[in-house]
Design brief:
This protein has 120 residues and is of the alpha+beta class. It is built from three helices and five strands; from the N terminus they run αβββααββ.
Amino acid sequence: MKKKNRLGEIGEDIAVRYLVRNRYKILNRNWRFDKKEIDIVAEKDNKLIIVEVKARTDAGFEKPGDIVNKRKENFLVEAADAFIKEFDIDMETRFDVIFVFFSGGNPAIEHIEKAFYPTY
C-alpha cells in the first residue's frame, strides 16, 4: 500500500474515533458513487453530515481552506446527492472537513463544521 494511502486511512480512523467521541453516529465510510467517494457519512442532531478527511504529515504552508477546493466541493455535493437519493434520506445536510496533522507525537485534529455550502 502506498504511504499516502496508508496515511489517509489512519487519518480517517482517527477522524471516526473523534466523531464517535463527540456523539456522531457513523452511517457509512468510504461510500462510492461512480469514481467519487465520501470519506465519512455521519448523523448528529437530525442532520446528515458529509465529512471529507485530509491527513498531512506537516501542515506546511497549506491552509486548511486551500486543501478542499471548489472542484472537490462540487464532487462531494454530487456524491452526497446520490447517497441521499439511494438511501431516501430526508434530513438537512452539512458538509464538514476534518484535518489530521501528524507532527511529533500525537496527531492534531481540526474539525471545520459547515466548511462549505453547496452551490448550484
